[in-house]
Design a protein that fits this description.
A 6-stranded antiparallel sheet has the order 2-1-11-10-9-8, sandwiched between helices. Strands 3-6-5 form a 3-stranded antiparallel sheet. The longest helix is centred in the C-terminal third of the chain and has 22 residues. The chain is about 30% helix and about 10% strand. Helix 5 crosses helix 6. It is an alpha+beta fold. The chain folds into 2 domains: about 230 residues, Beta-lactamase (3-Layer(aba) Sandwich); about 120 residues, 3-Layer(aba) Sandwich (Beta-lactamase), CATH 3.40.710.
Length: about 400
């Protein structure tokens, strides 16, 4: 599927300026991309793109629309549909179109797009002084031994040294606290801060630290610190199994959120605007947002990174619960992203002045992540051009 995405009548070049890649699932890197002159597949047209005025005046999304439209035909029927929504720096919707079958108002499982959301919640608690990026599992959770020196910053950057996955994370019948106790007793694979391993255990432990410090379950923390302040309805929920809408006492912090594209835009807009929600509410400080977009442990080696599955030699680093989409992760990035296993892919570009979401929910996780990430990276330079950026 992914090998034919870029047969888009010469419009697509796999590039994103100074930006790097992002999360991707397993893909067959041995299949060469076809020539850009390959006859494109028919476009399942979702109609005329929706835009808002006057902020979109002068913005030309013709190339963006063509790329997004032709990609669904190139998927050979593997992707039933998706949406592309783009917002400008004033939070105005400047482009919206559905390709194939999808609805931006329908809640879907966003998988790892949950990570950026969880990161904002944790950073808000840091700003409030309830946690510190230097808070340790020993101090907060009473852990002892080698795992007691793991800091919140290690957990949020996936450099905790813990095994990246644990079976208990997918058990809806136990509380999050019991799962974290199981994680506590696992044997570390590395010293904290020395190795990056993308996975779910890190944020599970971080969420438990938040529960202990606030005296509230994660669902209530999310409600109080982000969901209500940005204006999301009660139905936006973290689950253990989000596609089945099962399990709330052991929510999958790294991937269990169900939310619509339209609702997620309020969260992504908050991250884009340096922590200020579209409704004007300050959620996270400028300082914390700056830390989110910077690699906290640049010397850490890369253990498991889904970006490697792209087979393109991309060296993309991770900040605090977000991928860093630039060549200068140690200094900070104006572009960050948080793509998920079912294809839901949000990203922002503060330099160009926009944020965008590819909305979809497709079961073929390995292929669909590669599809979504490649489509994202094909769209990024054209969206930048539309906003007058090289």
């Amino acid at each position: 599927m992914r090998s034919s995405i870029f047969a888009l009548a010469g419009l697509v070049v796999l590039a994103s300026g100074a930006c790097g890649g992002t999360e991707a699932g397993p893909a067959d890197a041995s299949t060469p991309l076809p020539s850009a002159t390959t006859e494109p597949a028919p476009i399942p047209d979702g109609g005329t793109p929706e835009t808002s005025t006057p902020s979109d005046a002068g913005l030309d999304f013709t190339a963006v629309d063509a790329i997004a439209g032709r990609a669904i035909g190139a998927s050979d029927g593997g992707i039933p549909g998706y949406s592309l929504t783009i917002y400008d720096r004033r939070h105005a919707l400047v482009f919206k179109k559905v390709y194939g079958t999808f609805a931006t108002e329908t809640r879907v499982a966003v998988a790892s797009a949950s990570k950026l959301v969880s990161g904002l919640v944790l950073l808000r608690l840091v700003d409030q002084g309830k946690l510190s990026l230097d808070s340790t599992t020993g101090d907060v959770l009473g852990w002892t031994g080698p795992n007691a020196t793991i800091k919140l910053s290690h957990l949020m950057s996936f450099t905790s040294g813990l095994p990246r996955e644990a079976a208990c994370i997918l058990k809806p019948a136990i509380p999050l606290s019991a799962c974290v106790d199981e994680i506590r007793d696992t044997t570390a694979v590395a010293e904290p801060g020395t190795r990056f391993d993308y996975g779910s255990t890190h944020l599970h432990v971080a969420a438990r630290m938040a529960e202990v410090k606030t005296g509230k379950p994660w669902a209530t923390i999310f409600q109080d610190e982000l969901k209500a302040p940005v204006g999301l309805p009660p139905e936006v929920v973290y689950y253990t199994a989000p596609r089945q809408e099962v399990g709330v006492q052991n929510p999958l912090i790294a991937g269990g959120l169900r939310v619509s594209v339209d609702e997620y835009a309020k969260i992504l807009g908050t991250a884009f605007a340096n922590g200020v929600a579209p409704n004007g509410t300050r959620i996270v400080s400028d300082a914390s947002i700056a830390l989110q977009a910077k690699a906290p442990y640049p010397a850490a080696i890369v253990g498991y990174s889904p970006i490697a599955a792209l087979g393109q030699g991309l060296d993309v680093r991770y900040g605090l619960a977000a991928w860093l989409e630039c060549a200068t992760p140690n200094e900070g990035c104006a572009q960050i992203s948080s793509p998920g296993a079912f294809g839901f892919t949000p990203w922002l570009d503060r330099d160009a002045g926009y944020y965008a979401i590819l909305g979809m929910e497709v079961e073929r996780t390995g292929e669909v992540v590669g599809f979504a990430v490649e489509l994202q990276h094909a769209l990024m330079p054209e969206i930048r051009k539309a906003f007058g950026k090289p």
